[in-house]
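User: Some background: our group keeps a shared notebook of sequences we're curious about, and every so often someone picks one and asks for a predicted structure to add to the entry. Today it's my turn. The entry only has the sequence so far, pasted here. Could you supply the structure so I can complete it?
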Amino acid sequence: MLDIDTLRELNRALRECDASSIRVLVLSSALSRAFSAGVDVADHVASRVEVMLTEVRENARLLLNLKPLTVAAIHGSTLGGGAEIALLCDIVIAADDTVLGFPEIKLAAFPPVAAAWLPERCAWPLAMRLLLGETIDARAAEHAGLVSQVVEKARLAQTADGVATELAAHSAVALRGLTSATRGQRAPAVLRRLDAAIATYKAAVAPSRDADEGIRAFLDKRAPAWSHH
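Assistant: Of course. Here's the predicted structure to add to the notebook entry:
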């Protein structure tokens, strides 16, 4: 689970890796069953949401602007904020047990980074299906272009390391130029859309009765009772 402290630690590590001496950066998870189940539900409560969104925004800014090429190695449940992190990477290698999705809508929320970035990564109909809570498996994600390669789970780490080693053999100057010319060029527009999405989230969603009810219902393991407007 991505709580605020974990996001801060990840962002600190990304800042340290934003160096010309690093050509390729691999993001993976030490969890056995999941890359990430997403941002901690408890961090969506009104008192913590501002800090959580600040770290989420900084994470997106970093991944969109990092000098090194980024490779995500994902497996199992790759949901919400975890899926956002993975899909911000240049190359995504998925284990065959990967399930991608954004369950936030079920909590009366939505994922701001995915709302801003998914239309860059896949066709609009699929983006909307995902944002509305549908999950897809590794092969469907590969077919849609969200995932670069699918491998057996036992080979995920080895494959990611092999890809990173192969890519790191390229000219560092050329790699930096490429990341700057691709996602670096797209970053300002994406971050403008992200800021608009976050502003909407803060103004209309986070303070709503439904947002509070969605969190309480999830924590109480019961069906939510939404408002009628």
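Suggested note for the entry: The first strand starts at residue 24 and ends at 27. The chain has a mean pLDDT of 94.
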